[in-house]
Amino acid sequence: MAVETSSADRERPPGGEGHYGERIFRPGDSGEADRIDHGALAYDAITLARLRRLGAGPGWRCLDVGAGTGSVARALLRDAGVAEVVAVDRDTRFLAEDPPEGLTPLEADVLADGFDPGRFDLVHARFVLMHLPDPARMTARLAGLLAPGGVLVVGDAVDLTTGAAPDGPVTAAVRAMWRGLRDTIGTNVSWVPDCPRLLTEAGLESVAAEIHVPPLEAGSPISRFWADTWERSRDAMTATGLVDDEGLDEALRSLGAAEFAGFSPGMLTAWGRAPAPAN
């Protein structure tokens, strides 16, 4: 990606090495697709159930923002029977692998001023806004891509390492991860509990939200996801001073243990509908 001076570039998170997150999470690195898929295995069933309860089904045209390996996009086509999914990401190498009928990969930057792929019955973005510099502005932009009566669904991580969280190596690692990712690539989850208000301010109706916290179980997809994520972000985490290599190794061992190790970050999913046309 060429270096420009557009408003989108001025808003990019720290790191500035091309596509979002490539300072730590590079799509071409060995095992990156597996890391993404571990997260998908932990959350896809929850996400798809919510999308179907909101009406996603035959005839719907959908936009999946930050589609990653395309697990949600493919499930919408396969299980919900939607008509089309435009799956947008800054890097579509995983989406281009044997796309099913109805899946349209779109390599694009949602921060770009000219990003306007059309109007949709469903716009979905999971673990996207938390990585972008202006969640309120992006929420409004995504809401503007809805057809009348369409639904916007966004999901982002909720940090459970509050002062009341149990002390332990996993809690220390999660705190170091959030600070390290914010310092390096701009990830920020502090605003996520306020997401429903952003949807309301974007002009959406029937706004609601729910939280899912997957259990940290030995060998589970979410435990494997965090283990891979911490290994890739080890330098950023230890640079915070909140955890050292020994402490991070202890946290990784805890993820593989059968006993309680701590809370995984949760996922807050919020949604709202664009006003339907007046009769």
Automatic annotation (TrEMBL):
Region feature (Disordered) = 1-29
- Which GO BP terms apply? methylation
Question: Which part of the chain is the Methyltransferase type domain?
Answer: 63-154
**Where along the chain is composition biased (Basic and acidic residues)?**
7-26
Recorded hits in CDD domains, A to Z, give: AdoMet_MTases
Coiled-coil-forming residues are none
Q: Which Pfam families match?
A: Methyltransf_11
Gene Ontology molecular-function annotations: methyltransferase activity
User: Which keywords fit this entry according to its UniProt record?
Assistant: Methyltransferase, Transferase
Highest taxon of source: Bacteria
PANTHER family linked to this entry: METHYLTRANSFERASE, RHODANESE DOMAIN-CONTAINING PROTEIN
Protein name, as recorded:
Class I SAM-dependent methyltransferase
